[in-house]
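Technical annex B. To support the medicinal chemistry partners, we prepared a structural model of the target in complex with adenosine-5'-diphosphate, based solely on the information shown next.
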Amino acid sequence: MEEIDGLAILLLDKNGKIETWNKGAEKIKGYKAGEIIGQNFSIFYSEADRQKGVPAAILAEAASAGTTYHESWRIRKDGTEFWGLLTLMALRDENNELMGYAKVTRDLTEKMLAEITIRQQVHDLELKNKELEQFAYIASHDLQEPLLTITNFVELIQSEYSTTLDENSKVYFDFITQAATRMKCLIKGLLDFSRIGSENVLAAIDCNQLLDDLQQDLAASIAACGARIEYDNLPVIEGYPIEMRQLFQNLIANAIKFREKNKPPLITILSATEEAFWWFAIADNGIGIDEKFTDKIFRLFKRVHTRDIYEGNGIGLAHCKKIIETLGGKITVESELGRGSTFYFTIPRKTKND
Ligand code: ADP
């Protein structure tokens, strides 16, 4: 007992008076055997804990249950605190009479401090994230107004001065209108992005039904290129309906948009239900993505293909990533140039909000 390092091991009488003391106890609590034996173990507790009757309650619990465990801040001889994990075992004689207690205390201060630091960092990060989202929301919301003024006045000039404007001015105003329209899309994308995660009613979503509906919405672009979307037996999942629809819509719209010339898109959606999550794969036979860009495409406003060939703002996949990560899932892509891409994502069956 003397030699076990890092553990304070002592015997108490039935009132909590200290009877034995080991080196581990001396190291953790700072008292020498001569100055502590005979004192009550409540000396290790703060004044507030003593007033609340914590030491007596721990003794009573061990007496009735046999053994009890307790974790809290305790006081060393020099007044500093340590985080102790205490195990207290009642000792009884052959007639079951309480003789005293064996007490083992482990000093977990470092572990506790590390945990407090991590908790603080997580808290700070969550706060920063919220602030950023708030910032994106306010910035994009407030940017809409001056933009609207610009487009309104450009329209006004174009209609009121149509006869007096020369050809060059008309072209310049067209450029302004195009840029303003694009900026409107970007701002809307940013606003929508900052709103992801605010839908807070989880619902059962039948993915077959969701895809049937989506096919109807996308009917024009599906018909225009002869796309085929294959799925069967998809699960009913738990998620946020608007965001899930957005997720599938973005992935399918991309699979249609980034198709090979003269090759009708074939989009296959597969799913598996695992114990902890639902797994989905959306595969296309499109142009594919160079492997070195497969991380980049999930970032906001990042695109690989130029806008003159494939229109877009580089927002769709950033939305998908945020939707999935808000649910605690993951989204990845595997792709080969000229062969097609497969997007994989998981949705935990027990969501973070449970
Ligand atoms: P956008 O479609 O507006 O460009 P996204 O965020 O949806 O924005 O996609 C980012 C980029 O990822 C696209 O510009 C494109 O280069 C690439 N990409 C996305 N989906 C596919 C796909 N199915 N096939 C090939 N490239 C894709």
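Notes passed to the chemistry partners:
The pocket of adenosine-5'-diphosphate is lined by residues 250, 254-255, 258, 284, 286-289, 297, 303-305, 312-318, 341 (CB under 6 Å).
Residues 70 and 131 are 38 Å apart (CA to CA).
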